[in-house]
Amino acid sequence: MNKTIRRVVVFAGVLLVVLLLNLTWVQVIHAPELRNHPRNFARTQLTQFGRQRGQITADGVVLASSHYDEATKKFHRVYGKNADMWSPITGYFSLYSRSGIEYAEDAILSGQDDKLFGDRVIDLFTGRDPRGGNVALTIKPDMQEAAWNALQTGVGAGPLVGGVVAIQPSTGAILALASSPSYDPTPLASFSNTAVNNYDEQLRAMRPSPLINRATAEPLPPGSTFKVVTTAALLRKGVNANTYVSNAPRTILPDTVTPLENYGGEYCGGSTFGMAFAYSCNVPFADLSRKLTVREFQHTAESFGIGETYDIGVNEMASTIGDIPDAAALAQSAIGQRNVALTPLQNAIIAATIANNGVRMKPYLVEAETAQDLSVLYEAKPKELNRAISEKVAKQLTKLMITAEQYAGGANTLTVPVASKTGTAEHGTDSKNSIPYTWYIAFVPGHDVAVAVMIEGGAGVNRGSVGATVAGPVGRAVLKAALGQPTPKPVTPTYSNPSYQNAPSYQPTPTYTATVTPNYQGNGNGGNGNGGTGNGTGTAGNGNGNSGNGNTTGNGGTNTEGGDEE
């Protein structure tokens, strides 16, 4: 072989090696990135309808599964009984997008996760149809149903607008997560573009929006439930249940001439800090806030996790205490007003941390991931995040909260001692004429469960509504379910309240079409939204943010006119 031919052969060999390296890069290393690229979304989504997607379950109950449709030769995503009760958790899987667990666990459910590589190789050589893995959740169906039924029954007039989260304090496992109003994700799994688009538009047009996850993604003023955090900071400074406090109906904010009142301008029901906590008097907390520096107050809030998100698999927004520029702002924040805004998830974490003797655990929603043969791919393990407060402070708070429950009133009481705090947060520029947000956080000492409830409105809720009588019964229903005690029988909602609309109609028999207009995955496209449907969520979420800014102004006014109540 002469030199020229040898050079040509070597050059061709180099080109072949480069080509093989490029193919390896594209087909193996770069494949996941290409597969998940927005411009390939519609193609990959259609491909997924051609294979069996894994199940989503909760304590053995199947929440989502894939059924083969003989007519279209595709797998149709099917959601179980009471799908609207579960959709804030499961999310949806459609031609356009995914949300919730369907999005967060998509790699496992679709079979594309690296943990399932061995299964994919076996499928390739055996000719078996590829299948996705399964996801098991921490949710307890009886507690989830109790939360949902309580939200739909409300105060007896119809459904409430709000969110509920229950947590196992010792592990961080989320036992219930409900948001109302909600939606049925089944129509979004249709093969018909027209059916999906029509249903999506109806959902986005509804008010209040069923697309907002009020359990995790809507921080609102927590009112007096936040006094638990303030109390933790004060207990560290030597305040105790017997500390003398003023029972005056009003005080003056530090370094101002602005008055701050107890609820209704009433005198406090006691002159000790323990009774001020039980009656939720604003004046003692505003006065005692002078004992704290802004940094001490912020540190206590941060130790409970305020400001963090937890990546639990559903859409989240971080809670906040906002800016605190001076002593007057600190006094307002100390009673859970001004810029303070929490989600039910965060408030449940606060209650769970106290119940767990001051140790904060990482909340989680996914209990396990399994292959189709049920071999375990992943199993959640409890993770301690930090010690938020000392065991001594946690025990002091527990005693204060037990007394607060005894003074709270409201229906659906338990037969065992409960440690709780209620809250009623006025808001808006005309706070006296707005419907307050009502809250309830609680746990049962000696039992491994904590709950938080937020109600922002609904049938039968009015300007005189308070946390003890609106949010309290909802939280107690969840605690009863956790303890195996009888819960109130569900009442079928009539939806007579015009602000809470009926569920939109949809086409029950989908017909498949290969033409799609992708709206891509919602977490990137809709801010806090989810896909096509999520764009509405994101918009509504931004509205809530603007409303929150309004709350800042309005809540200052609230404290001037009369603050928070239990």
What does the model show?
Residues 493-565 have low confidence and may be disordered. 39% of the residues lie in helices and 14% in strands. Helix 9 (193-205) packs parallel to helix 19 and helix 12 packs across helix 14 (327-334). It starts with a helix and ends in a 5-residue tail after the last helix. The strands form 4 sheets. The protein has a 6-stranded mixed sheet, covered by helices on one side. A 5-stranded antiparallel sheet has the order 6-5-15-14-13. The protein has a two-stranded antiparallel sheet with strand order 7-8. The protein is α+β, with helices and mostly antiparallel strands and 566 residues long.
Number of helices: 19
Query: What's the story with the biggest beta sheet?
Result: 6 strands, mixed
Distance between the termini: 96 Å
List how many beta strands DSSP finds.
15
Instruction: Give the strand line-up of the largest sheet.
Output: 3-2-1-4-10-11
What percentage of residues falls in helices of 4 or more residues?
25-40%
**Structural class estimated from helices and strands:** alpha+beta
Q: Averaging pLDDT over every residue, what do you get? A: 83
Shape: elongated
Radius of gyration from CA coordinates:
26 Å
- Strand percentage lies at 5-15%
- In the predicted model, the low-confidence regions spanning at least 5 consecutive residues are 493-565
